[in-house]
Design goal:
Layout lengths: L9 H6 L1 E5 L4 H15 L4 E6 L1 H4 L3 H9 L4 E5 L4 H4 L17 H10 L1 H9 L7 E5 L4 H9 L3 E4 L4 H13 L10 E3 L8 E3 L13 H15 L3 E4 L7 H11 L3 E3 L10 H5 L9 H9 L6 E5 L8 H14 L3 E5 L5 H11 L1 H4 L4 E5 L4 H5 L4 E6 L3 H10 L3 E3 L6 H11 L3 E3 L22 H12 L3 H21 L4 H21 L1
Parallel strand pairs: 1-2, 1-4, 2-3, 4-5, 5-8, 8-9, 10-11, 10-13, 11-12, 13-14, 14-15
Antiparallel strand pairs: 6-7
């Protein structure tokens, strides 16, 4: 068992200062803010650095932490919209009006190097450690200049990290066609993938500038001091151990960090403001039996075609079951609104279906007893939030690590059922993808019925989900594995700081 933080280290804690620099996208900001809150509750000074519009999304939560006595603060840096050719008011990936601006967004991130350096230089006490998103590689240069240890916040899990490492090392994917299945080598479980399902780093496009950015990210990641992971050891023990063995990296599993949001207000206000008052969802959910409602959300960055969304909607209608369906507020909203109106969708599902445009208080909804399944894109935050809530998942991955996460929940921990997506549609490449529909209404209905219908598998899947939820809660509590790992992280940085000043 790992040792707890020594009592005589309290004076040293006062001089420790962790700086968090998250990528400007909801799925990256929220877990880093949650982790920052958990660290500050351990009496360590914490600063979160972000841009003005992104800070709005979590300022109320941080203000409550400050009022409770946590040594945490937000510092702002201006986002260089004009200099990078990005419209004013767009400070995060999901607000970009066009994916043609994706490259501009990464140019803007590189332009943050000087203002970040100037901001960090003035901090008191001086930063002891910088925890940053790997997609902002200029932070690595700042940390090297200041001789401060930098730690990657990866935002995924050790299953994903090990898959990527072993594929890079073995190159097995290079000798297969896009549609062929192959076994990822060196994993504790037999996992087969198609080349077409792998992240974009294994299927790079023709944009040389973006490929160069990916290379820089890989370099900054490789020589960091270590990696903090939003997962817990009991969930993927063999993968944590094997990833550490094959890489030699320091790895601290400190999650699930979303469990830092214990009261209803924190759950409701985690992220942007919802289009409908949160009490409306809760009251509606209260009217349904336990484990009877399907929650559907494909993530804040999804750019699913309207044709695919229509099939998803028709599959939900065909189940005759109650559901909450979150539709992204920006991408092709006019097309979906037109179909919903012409088809009379909301009238057809009236009383048993709620549609939410934009942001939804996901942690709050998932924690309600009425939720029986989560139809998800398999982003790791959403996947882990389902695990924390003890809710089985229906998997509809699209890009990045999402097909890995599908394999993990369906095959490794066995709490999920796939709708059958076979090909990744990389973020920003949706318009180039010829198949508007990968999953039809029958696929959707069939997968939902496997989770929600009768049968022995349904009960076992739900039991496993509840078991992992219990493990997750214990991991984050005092004495749990993630709590101890947070202690070890603090002790490690104390040790580095003492060596630096001795």
């Amino acid at each position: 068992m790992a040792p707890e933080l020594a009592m005589d280290s309290t004076p040293l804690l006062c001089n420790l200062h962790f700086v968090f620099i998250p990528l400007m996208a909801p799925g990256h900001i929220l877990p880093m803010v949650d982790m920052a809150k958990l660290l500050a509750r351990r009496n360590v000074k914490v600063t979160i650095v972000t841009t003005p519009l992104n800070a709005i999304k979590f300022r109320a939560s941080i203000d409550r932490e400050i009022q409770s006595g946590s040594p945490i603060q937000i510092l702002l840096v201006r986002f260089p919209n004009v200099e990078a050719g990005i419209p004013d008011g767009c400070e995060s990936l999901e607000t970009l009006p066009s994916m043609d601006l994706k490259e501009n967004f990464f140019i803007a991130l590189a332009m943050l190097e000087q203002p970040l350096e100037e901001l960090l230089e003035k901090l008191k006490p001086f930063p002891s450690c910088i925890i940053y998103d790997k997609h902002i590689p200029c932070v690595a240069d700042i940390a090297i200049k200041f001789k401060v240890p930098r730690i990657i916040f990866d935002g995924t899990n050790c299953f994903n990290l090990l898959c990527n490492h072993n594929l890079h090392a073995s190159k097995v994917y290079e000798n297969v066609s896009d549609s062929d299945q192959f076994v990822i080598p060196g994993l504790p479980d037999r996992i087969e993938m198609r080349k077409s399902q792998l992240p974009v780093i294994f299927n790079p496009g023709t944009n040389q500038n973006l490929n160069a950015i990916r290379e820089k990210i890989a370099v900054s990641e490789a020589d960091s001091y270590g990696i903090v992971v939003n997962s817990f050891e009991e969930l993927e023990a063999e993968y944590v151990k094997e990833y550490q063995r094959v890489t030699g990296y320091k790895v601290w599993c400190v999650g699930p960090v979303s469990l830092s949001n214990k009261d209803e207000l924190d759950k409701a206000q985690r992220g942007s403001k919802s289009s409908i008052d949160e009490s409306h969802y809760v009251k509606w959910l209260d009217s349904w039996p336990s484990s009877s409602v399907i929650y559907v959300c494909l993530g804040s960055l999804n750019r699913v075609t309207s044709e695919q969304l229509i099939e998803l909607g028709l599959g939900l209608e065909a189940t005759k079951r109650p559901f909450i369906w979150v539709l992204r507020g920006a991408y092709r909203r006019d097309e979906m609104e037109k179909w919903l109106l012409e088809y009379g969708y909301e009238e057809r599902v009236k009383g048993r279906g709620i549609l939410i445009w934009g942001w939804a208080p996901q942690v709050l909804i998932l924690s309600h007893r009425a939720i029986g399944a989560f139809l998800t894109h398999c982003g790791w935050n959403s996947t882990l939030e389902a695990i924390c809530a003890g809710v089985p998942v229906i998997t509809f991955p699209m890009f990045a690590d999402q097909f890995y996460n599908e394999k993990f929940v369906v095959q490794v921990i066995e709490i999920g059922v796939s709708v059958g997506a076979q090909t990744a549609v990389h973020f920003g490449d949706e318009e180039k993808f010829n198949e508007g529909v990968q999953v039809n209404r029958d696929n959707v209905k069939e997968a939902i019925e496997k989770v929600m219908g009768e049968g022995e598998d349904k009960g076992k899947r739900r039991e496993r989900a509840k078991k992992f939820a219990d493990m997750a809660k214990k991991a984050i509590e005092e004495g749990g594995s993630s709590y101890r790992n947070m202690s070890l992280l603090i002790e490690d940085i104390i040790h580095v700081t003492l060596l630096h000043y001795s």
